[in-house]
């Protein structure tokens, strides 16, 4: 029948997806697995029999077991939970799972069972961690550089300045955010500055210019500034990364 065919297609879709649907029965304060969708074995190698009688907790990464037990407590307390943790597959490899579950209660408000979904987010989690580590290396590199480095928008408003620039400006890096570079330039230089960064393109994103900076309460300073335009997927300039050669 059409209903049976649709059900079979749904089963095949679930079995081949990176998601596992599960049911846990409430029993005297514990949540015991009673059902996993067919995608459990292709994804993790386990069967329902491998996960009952407390065995499931043994597959949780040792560093994440507190998260797992807190997940159970929150689910019983609040009725909803969403957690990320690592779970070992039958081959000994760990998968990052996004676990979202809801607790079902009877007419008297007593817990009956939990219905939930595991979604394998290993690739996304590892990619995010690589980005975080890359950003940390970049931050250290920028902060340790003797050059003055900043980022600013096309309307010349600073979004970041490193410590050497802040030290020269006699402020903290946080205080640089929001400053408009145009305030340090004459009207003529400001117009030329905006025209120059307007010529940056994804094909030619680099520019070098010697400009005269007028700092509050100081004499004029000539700086050599090297700019690099940062563009979105449509080729629109969204930000400029600037490196200043320290003044003598």
From TrEMBL:
Enzyme class: transferase
Residue ranges constituting the PAS domain according to the UniProt record: 6-79
EC number: 2.7.13.3
Domain PAC: 81-133
Catalytic activity: ATP + protein L-histidine = ADP + protein N-phospho-L-histidine
Keyword tags: Kinase, Phosphoprotein, Transferase
GO molecular function, one term: protein histidine kinase activity
SUPFAM superfamilies per record: PYP-like sensor domain (PAS domain) (SSF55785)
Stated name of the protein: histidine kinase
């Amino acid at each position: 029948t059409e209903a049976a065919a649709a059900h079979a297609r749904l089963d095949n879709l679930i079995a081949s997806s990176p998601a596992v649907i599960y049911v846990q029965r409430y029993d005297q304060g514990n949540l015991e697995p009673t059902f996993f969708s067919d995608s459990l074995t292709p994804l993790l190698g386990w069967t329902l029999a491998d996960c009952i009688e407390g065995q499931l907790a043994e597959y949780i990464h040792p560093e994440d077991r507190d998260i797992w037990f807190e997940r159970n407590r929150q689910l019983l307390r609040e009725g909803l939970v969403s957690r990320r943790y690592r779970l070992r597959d039958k081959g000994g490899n760990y998968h990052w799972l996004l676990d979202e579950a809801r607790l079902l209660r009877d007419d008297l408000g007593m817990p009956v069972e939990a219905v939930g979904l595991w979604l394998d987010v290993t690739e996304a989690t590892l990619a995010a961690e690589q980005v975080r580590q890359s950003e940390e290396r970049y931050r250290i590199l920028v902060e340790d550089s003797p050059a003055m480095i900043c980022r600013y928008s096309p309307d010349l408003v600073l979004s970041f300045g490193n410590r050497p620039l802040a030290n020269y400006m006699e402020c903290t890096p946080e205080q640089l955010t929001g400053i408009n570079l145009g305030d340090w330039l004459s009207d003529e230089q400001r117009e030329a500055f905006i025209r120059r960064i307007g010529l940056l393109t994804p094909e030619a994103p680099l520019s070098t210019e010697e400009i005269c900076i007028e700092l509050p309460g100081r004499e004029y300073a000539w700086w050599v500034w090297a700019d690099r335009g940062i563009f979105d997927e449509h080729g629109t300039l969204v930000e400029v990364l600037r490196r200043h050669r320290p003044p003598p």
